[in-house]
Each structure stands twice: as structure tokens, then as C-alpha cells.
Amino acid sequence: MTRYPESGGPITRRVPHGDTLPRLVCDTCGFIRYDNPKIVVGAVATLADARILLCRRAIEPQVGLWTIPAGYMELNETAEAGALREAREEAGAEITIDGLLAVYNVPRISQVQLIFRAHMTNDSLAIGPESLEARFFEWREIPWDALAFPSVAWALHHHRAAEGRPLGAPFGNPAGQTGDFARGHAAPVPEL
Fold it and tell me: Is the preceding omega at residue 190 within 30 degrees of 0, hence cis?
């Protein structure tokens, strides 16, 4: 939980004694506010026939573009529980987590993304308020030019690279990629 100083004193951004980074510090009581990265959890979920679940976003950022079911972890929630919740919220999907597929770092927006490999428990879908549409895609049908974020392309390619094999150490960002791209530009497809 984010805490704020109770003194009501002025707050300035400075490097506190014994620290190395600028923080918000209360000039009256010395309270230090630490801002930390957001954790995103999601899953590449498939049916038995290998079709992949994608959701078309109804919210910004990237409204109208396609993504895997994913979102911010909630307080007091495990990463796995968060991925299950996001699949239910965005696609009405019931999934089973198979293991951790990838860990992506997007420092520009202070995110760490934990992406799981999962399988659908059935083929039932019911879109939630954050999705315009949810459907299953065969690999050749994936709308590569309409993916919402670079990490969606990374996760799909990493899923394909690990298909049919036990998961070992999770994949990470493709070499030299940090998740930066502007809206309207196709997500770069990494060569794996």
C-alpha cells in the first residue's frame, strides 16, 4: 500500500541520505515515498487444437488492438491467481496454468511482465468490459499488424518456440528490445 506522510509537510524530490536515487521526501518528517514497478500477469492460453486465445482491447492504451489476456496484479494476489483472473475478466475464459513462459522488462513504463503458458479448460468465452471481442486464432491467422504491444508478439513467438516441450527457464526480452514503439506501428516480430 502506498503511504503518504501524516505531517502534511512540503514534499520534494531528492536523494535521501544513504540512497542513490531521487525519491519523494517529506521535508517535515522525513517520510520517503518509494515508487516501484508495476507487475503485469497474463497467459498464452490454447485449446487442445493449438488455437490461441486473443482479446481485442476495449480500453486504452491501444483500444481496438489484440492482446493476450493480461493485466496488473492486485494486492494480496499470487501471479498465477492474477493470470487466471485476467483470463476470466477479459474473455470469460477458464484456464489452467502450465508454467511460467516468460519474464519481460519494459523499463520505459516501469513494468515487469510475467507471462504464463496455459491451456483452456473448455472453449467457452464471454467478453468482459475491457474487451471488444475474444476469439481463438490459428497461428497463420494471428493479426500480427494489429497486436497491442511488442510483448504480445514476443509471448506468442516464445510460446511457439516452447510448444510441445516442458518449460525450463523462462524466456526474456528479445535481444535489444525494450518494448518501445508508437501506436499505429506494427509490433516488431523477433527472430527466434
Answer: no
For residue 29, what is the domain's CATH number?
Answer: 2.20.70.10
CB atoms closer than 10 angstroms to residue 134? 20
Amino acid occupying residue 68: I
**Residue 63 falls inside a structural domain:** yes
CB 135 within 8 A of CB 125: yes
**Residue 41 pLDDT more than 90?**
yes
Residue 29 has φ and ψ, to the nearest 5°, of: -110, -10
Q: What pLDDT, on a 0 to 100 scale, did the predictor assign at position 155?
A: 98
Same domain, 2 and 19: yes
pLDDT at 121 over 50: yes
Strand pairing report for 111-120 and 38-46? parallel
Question: Which whole number is the average pLDDT over 22-43?
Answer: 94
| Residue 90 domain boundaries | 38-162
